[in-house]
Amino acid sequence: MTIEQLRRLHSARPFHPFDVHLADGRAIGVEHPEMLLQSQSGRTIAVACPDDTIEIIDLLLVTSLKPRGNGRPGRGPRRR
């Protein structure tokens, strides 16, 4: 995982929520672009969590980034 990959997901318009998967098995959700802050060096991020805590994460511990589905059903044939 590179900082460029994170920046691409973070700056996508329209924004889509994604999960940051860590080496210890946790997944931290990024629900909105304003909930993630990147350090100037690009090595550390801070993610605001729904319980009003902040996770400070070293990007060397990030194993993957996974975009979430939009929750909408697939576009199949319309029922009448």
What does this structure look like?
Helix content is 11%, strand content 35%. With 80 residues, it is mainly beta. The strands form 2 sheets. The chain has a 3-stranded antiparallel β-sheet, with helices on one face. The longest helix is centred in the first third of the chain and has 9 residues, at 3-11.
Structural class: mainly beta
Count of strand segments: 6
Mean pLDDT: 88
Give helix and strand order, one letter per element, not per position.
Answer: HEEEEEE
Unreliable spans are: 73-80
List the helices and strands and how they pair.
Blueprint: H1 3-11, E1 18-22, E2 27-30, E3 36-38, E4 44-48, E5 54-58, E6 62-67
What attributes does this structure have?
mainly beta; 3-stranded antiparallel beta sheet; 80 residues; globular; single chain; 6 strands; 1 helix; disordered C terminus
